[in-house]
């Protein structure tokens, strides 16, 4: 055989017809349109108080974000990742979960975690770097995935475990559009499909991963279509329409419990900065932000409640006062929480510390001896 490089001639029309992006038309499910009109057949069959609670929880999310941001500015929280603009995605999904389900959070979904039983104090402590507080709380909330996408295979694993134990519950992972570009996303989704586990992967496509816009993240038109490659269900939903998200995730949950994992894409927008350490004016223009302001999830849903005669039951001022008081109490409780020893960073990874970690701990302790001012604001473990 001749293995010298050969010239390549165009193959011409030989009947090869590649599948392409245009072949996938994925609808975006909606219940309430941006102008507040709605599809009455799609209004979920829940009582009026629950419909009002959806609004109340969205307000909780918004107020939490405002207060947490101010707290960070006063130096009392490490960083804050706000859910502003994503309230409908956060609350509509959180509201559809049962107590026995497990949430694998990604950071912006404060209201969903609070409604799942996590205390406000523990949430604040997390953002102060005290992660283990949340484990005392007994809520089915896993630690926050700071390493993007790392929780996706864990959610698959938890769902598998619950399936093997014959529990009627799902693992629910919140993730961003950026997380869909990680290897962990692929591994978690693929295994979920193969094992047919009760998991729902909820991607809040807020159009950015820090400064990188969605079309720089993937060549695919949608996140939802990626589900098909894993042989699982995909749903694309208007993430600023709380009823649409509630219906979509409720349906996904039902499917998941039957052994059909689902990837849900909620199309939304991150209205604020990525975190309190980011300046979004450096990479996006005001017109874009203004355009999404017109699609505000709270205003849209308020208009639905007004049109259907349910708004009267909501006392916004009372909710604000209640949240303010609860937030102040939670800050006080967080302040009273025992300071952690900085060496504890080394404690919880292995039952027995491996030599490499021992070496790092020794280096760290030597550094603290040499420059105690680095950590003089933090409690130190007594020697010996
Ligand atoms: C593995 C990993 N790479 C990079 C980062 C730095 N980082 C923090 S948030 C973020 C973007 C996340 O974007 P997305 O998943 O869309 O979530 P969003 O913040 O938009 O809600 C990046 C790259 C990280 N935390 N983990
Ligand atoms: Mg994003």
From TrEMBL:
Keywords: Oxidoreductase, Pyruvate. GO terms for biological process: branched-chain amino acid catabolic process; sulfur compound biosynthetic process. GO terms for molecular function: oxidoreductase activity, acting on the aldehyde or oxo group of donors, disulfide as acceptor. InterPro entries: Alpha-ketoacid_DH_E1_comp (IPR050771), DH_E1 (IPR001017), PdhA/BkdA (IPR017596), THDP-binding (IPR029061). Residues 55-339 form the Dehydrogenase E1 component domain. The keyword Oxidoreductase applies. Residues 1-21 are annotated as: Disordered. The keyword Protease does not apply. Pfam families: E1_dh. NCBIfam families: PDH_E1_alph_x (TIGR03181). This is Pyruvate dehydrogenase E1 component alpha subunit. It comes from Halostagnicola kamekurae. The lineage of its organism: Archaea, Methanobacteriati, Methanobacteriota, Stenosarchaea group, Halobacteria.
